[in-house]
Backbone:
């Protein structure tokens, strides 16, 4: 028997990441790139793929365990895989055992198979994802008192919602701030008013939802709207794309211009930490990537050290990884400022939600040709709508206006970056 160990790849700065699902079992045949286990951090989930083919000999992890880079997931027997290929047709055609269903069964309750409710032992381990644990902390819920209805007793967000129904949450948050005391969510029989269809949220939306709610409820957002004349910039972009293979998008231009603006206004490249503002001397720019499962935010690291062609190539690479579900955790962490560009979809202005612990986020909508008065006559100019949301605790309105004014000046005349 020639066994091979499959280990957890580099997760960036993350350690002790919980295993929320095991997708194979002993005896299963696996191929390279087959998903083995699902890990979940505060920001994202990721499937760990197989790096070798063969028969699963021994599983080294189970649901609820925590793993880090180098942790052994399982061992495979490569020889057994070769032997399996030589078996008779009846054996080859026999379908391998399917992985158990995901922990969170999101089908409507009336279509699910009955399942036994497994309470979490009060003196045993508590099986819950980081996002569930965070919600429990904010609501002051003792997880050992909650009955987990997920597979193997895992506690879900729905379990927290059912716990002590009707009681508003008013407890101290981990950073000492008071959590808002909100009225219970209305419980309505929607089907009593007409035909309905229940569609489960994607895993990404379920994970990001609590963070978005926290950021919107606890950060005093102010959004500054402005317009940038990008007529000359668009002409420059098209010229670049006609001269070389790397296609430069307006997002790449926005990242370069934003870095220059952040250097001029360092309070926007910062994080609040108690009564202090942590000013960051590095410029890691996140950008919202639209995928079928929901929005992900890859991060361009050290954007101030990269040229526009390098940034454009990196955007394309990270966006492709996001769409294919292959982004690594360390490719979505460490951001200092985020850009959400809806240019290809339409719209004029919107209010982007700040991605805590950052203090600002820039939104860009669809550019359009508009008549602009040049002092003597109206001339057609290409105008880009900008929406800057910022944390009013860290930045005041005057600074927000100066930021967008400076940014639109750079976008109108890209040569200003050299100043």
Residues:
């Amino acid at each position: 028997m020639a066994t091979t160990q499959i280990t957890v790849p580099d997760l960036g700065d993350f350690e002790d990441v919980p295993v929320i699902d095991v997708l194979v079992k002993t005896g299963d045949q696996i191929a390279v790139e087959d998903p083995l286990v699902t890990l979940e951090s505060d920001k994202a989930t990721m499937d760990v793929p197989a790096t070798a083919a063969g028969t699963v000999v021994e599983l080294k992890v189970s649901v609820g365990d925590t793993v880090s880079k180098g942790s052994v997931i399982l061992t495979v027997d490569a020889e057994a895989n070769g032997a399996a290929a030589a078996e008779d047709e009846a054996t080859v055609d026999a379908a391998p055992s399917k992985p158990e269903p995901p922990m969170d069964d999101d089908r409507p309750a009336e279509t699910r198979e009955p399942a036994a409710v497994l309470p979490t032992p009060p003196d045993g381990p508590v099986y819950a994802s980081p996002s569930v644990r965070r919600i429990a902390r904010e609501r002051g819920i003792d997880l050992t008192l909650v009955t987990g209805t997920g597979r193997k007793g895992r506690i879900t967000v729905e379990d927290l919602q059912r716990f002590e129904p009707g009681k508003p949450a008013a407890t101290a948050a981990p950073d000492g701030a008071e959590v808002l005391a909100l009225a219970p969510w209305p419980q309505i029989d929607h089907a009593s008013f007409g035909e309905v269809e229940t569609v489960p949220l994607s895993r990404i939306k379920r994970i990001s939802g609590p963070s978005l709610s926290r950021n919107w409820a606890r950060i005093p957002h102010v959004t500054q709207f402005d317009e940038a004349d990008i007529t000359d910039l668009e002409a420059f972009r098209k010229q670049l794309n006609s001269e070389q293979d790397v296609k430069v998008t307006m997002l790449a231009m926005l990242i370069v211009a934003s870095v220059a603006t952040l250097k001029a206004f360092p309070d926007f490249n910062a994080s609040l930490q108690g009564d202090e503002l942590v000013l960051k001397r590095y410029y890691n720019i996140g950008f919202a990537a639209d995928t079928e499962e929901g929005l992900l935010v890859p991060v361009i690291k050290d954007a101030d050290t990269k040229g526009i062609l390098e940034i454009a190539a990196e955007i394309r690479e990270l966006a492709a990884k996001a769409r294919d579900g292959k982004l690594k955790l360390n490719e979505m962490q460490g951001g200092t400022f985020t850009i959400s560009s809806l240019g290809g979809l339409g719209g004029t202005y919107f209010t982007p939600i700040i991605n805590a612990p950052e203090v600002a986020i820039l939104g860009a909508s669809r550019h359009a040709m508009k008549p602009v008065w040049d002092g003597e006559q109206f001339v057609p100019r290409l105008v880009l709508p900008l929406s800057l949301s910022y944390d009013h605790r860290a930045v005041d309105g005057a600074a927000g206006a100066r930021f967008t004014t400076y940014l639109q000046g750079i976008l109108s005349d890209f040569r200003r970056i050299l100043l």
In short: The chain is about 25% helix and 25% strand. The first strand starts at residue 3 and ends at 7. The two ends are 66 Å apart (CA to CA).
